Automatic annotation (TrEMBL):
Source domain of life: Eukaryota
MARVEL domain residues: 9-136
Protein name: Membrane-associating domain-containing protein
Transmembrane segments: 12-32, 44-64, 71-91, 125-143
Protein's UniProt keywords contain Methyltransferase: no
Acetylation as UniProt keyword: no
Organism, as annotated: Aspergillus cavernicola
Protein's cellular compartments: Membrane
Sorted UniProt keywords: Membrane, Transmembrane, Transmembrane helix
InterPro entries from the UniProt entry: Marvel (IPR008253)
Membrane-topology annotation of the record: Multi-pass membrane protein
Amino acid sequence: MPVVSRVVSIVLRVAEIVFGAVVAGIIGWFLHRFGDADAWPQPRWIYTEVIAGISILFGIIWLIPFSSGFFTWPLDLLISMAWFAAFGIQVDANNRLNCGSIWNWGAITDNTYCGRWKAAQAFKFLSAIVWIVSALVGIWFTFRVRRHATDRYGGSGGRYWI
C-alpha cells in the first residue's frame, strides 16, 4: 500500500499547486485592476495572495516524494484552515456585489467580473478541500507507519524510520 499512498500524495500536491496558481492569478488580476479603488476588499485579496503563494511553495517542496512528506500533515491542516478562511472572507465580501449566490458557480467560465469572482471562490474552496484530504492521507500514513513499527519491533514502536 505505500505505493498507493505515494501516488495519491503526488496527485494531491499537484492539485494544490494548480489550485493555488489559479487563485493567485485571478486575485492578482483583481489587485492589478482594482488596486486603487477604496471600495474593494484589498486586504482580503492580499491575504489570499499570501496563502496562495505559501500553498504553491509548500506544494512544490512537498511534491518531492520522501516519506517525511507524509509527516507534514499538521501544516497541511493549517493551510487548509487558511484556505477556508480565505474562502470565508471572500464570501463575506460577496455581500457587496450583485453576482448572485455564493454557491452558484455556473458562470465561472465567463470572462466577466462576476465569473472571475466565482472562479476564485470555487478554486479557494477546492484548494481547502484538497489540503484537508492531503492532511488526512498524512495522518493515515503516519499512524500506519507507527502501527507497523510497533508490530515489527515490539511495544514501544521505537524505530519509526524503518
